[in-house]
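Folding follows sequence. Below is one example:
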Amino acid sequence: MTDLDSLAKDSILRLSPGARIKYDEVRECNLLLMPECVVKLNNSASEVLELIDGKRTVAHIYAELVLIYEDETLHKDLAEFLTDALVRGWIEIVHS
């Protein structure tokens, strides 16, 4: 089970083992491909997951999204998405 309390600004995240993002030309969207699971991603989810590379911290991901969206209030939405992605097993914490 994931310790969600350990998700801090300095947490480094990566996609879970076996997970990858692939563009599906038929559906015209990105898919998160995992063993025994395929998730159709909306644009926001896709942008966040593409920033999760095992090197960036949560703070770095947030900073990059603020530059794209010019919205410093998106921290709550980002925290909710990352928490949900952790629970679903899409991503994992490398270091916190």
The longest helix spans residues 75-88. The first strand starts at residue 12 and ends at 15. The two ends are 16 Å apart (CA to CA).
